[in-house]
């Protein structure tokens, strides 16, 4: 079993639809996803989510508020992975929390990614359609009052 954790970063301005941060992988198939990564041995899930988000997006913990009551787990079979080819065929559980960004600064992506963009919930669902993600996007959009 492979375990990963990350944050779904949102920007929410009054009277506007929330936007969600997606990062584009630097290796084929160049997929879009929220920041996330493997949980290190002995590391708490939420600590891993925060660490991975900081490493991959450049945003610091002081720049976002994590909604700790929004933990959402998705389990699926890994069909391809350039970063971790040894994981192909294994079952993966990805754990996410919603976090709201308090800055308008641009993301500074790590070498693991080539692009970052802020998207609507509908665009997030079209760009990241892994099993279980549609429910996550809808749930977090509803929490933010955008649906």
UniProtKB/TrEMBL annotation:
One of its GO terms (molecular function) is nucleotide binding. Residues 1-141 form the Nudix hydrolase domain. GO terms for biological process: AMP biosynthetic process; ATP biosynthetic process. It holds the Pfam family NUDIX. InterPro entries: NUDIX_hydrolase-like_dom_sf, NUDIX_hydrolase_CS, NUDIX_hydrolase_dom, Nudix_hydrolase_domain, Tetra_PHTase. Belongs to the Nudix hydrolase family. PROSITE patterns: NUDIX (PS51462), NUDIX_BOX (PS00893). The keyword Protein biosynthesis does not apply. SUPFAM superfamilies: Nudix. The keyword Hydrolase applies. Keywords: Hydrolase, Nucleotide-binding. This is Bis(5'-nucleosyl)-tetraphosphatase [asymmetrical].
